[in-house]
Protein: Putative zinc-type alcohol dehydrogenase-like protein
Organism: Paenibacillus prosopidis
Amino acid sequence: MITANARATFSPEGPFKLTTIERRDLEPHDVLIEIKYAGICHSDIHTARGDWGPVNYPLVPGHEIAGFVTQVGSEVTKFVVGDRVGVGCMVDSCRECNNCRKGVEQYCLNGMTGTYAAIDRYGQYTQGGYSTHIVVTEDFVVRIPDGIELDAAAPLLCAGITTYSPLRHWGAAPGKKVAVVGLGGLGHMAVKFAHAMGAEVTVLSQTLKKKEDGLRLGADHYYSTSDSETFKILAGSFDLIVNTVSAEIDLNAYLSLLAVDGTLVNVGAPSEPLPVHVFSLIPHRRSFAGSAIGGIRETQEMLDFCAEHHIVPEIEVISANQIDEAWERVLASDVRYRFVIDISTMANE
Ligand SMILES: [Zn+2]
Ligand SMILES: [Zn+2]
């Protein structure tokens, strides 16, 4: 067993405390990663607080992991000691079902293994990246290109791939009009990606508070959704709307903004069902869809795309003793645009 320092929450209410966790000894295809940075994702909070179902405590969240390989198993072929690597939302899948074979392991028919709060194939409860070390099978580890700093790389492993994948799938490209709902951790990445893919990008945000930011990040237009005029002006105009908001929205109003054959894809996950009027879809052959992260191959492609196009998230680096405070700020939407924990501060008071 390998002992790692970690920050864990011992109840839904927290707070985080310094603790130690055990990582398995390396199997032949495992790599040991010394974690340097871990991003804070809104879903860490939902999961730890039990919003999405009961979890075990202590819980170490974190599925935006960046670090170095410090040890490799006897049959590892993809990595050597010293490689800069990342781990995202999953650490394993069955690898045999149709979806795994197609490279969409996130949709594994037998259920992918989450990086934390899941039971892995060894029967162990997985613990995430708010820790100094993690052991992961090489097939679920991606390479971080040299051009991307490790702190900025971390949020790409969830916020990055979650927005990159639907933009690619629904063909964001020159000549396409893409709207991004919400300019938070996910939304700001969606704007950067859609812009780099050549689409005309519009941000739809409750207020115009972050308009300057949005335009700087690559948006061509910025509208307030609390202004009802917005829905009149933009009716029938978008090929793709990426909804990053997990709070409830008036879906039918947003669907009315889609052009013929347009798609509204949800990457935010509201806990309550959303009412969709079928007549919001029929007249313009519109689609309402969902999308979850991306496969391992696509995650690597996304990282390479970021290096090529000089795309990195906007981050605020914090020390490990500031996690509770950072979570409160995430809940208050007071972050531009992603918190990243400096893991070298793990044992600090
Ligand atoms: Zn996440
Ligand atoms: Zn599978």
Q: What stands out?
A: Residues 41, 43, 63, 89, 158 surround zinc ion (ligand 1) (CB under 6 Å).
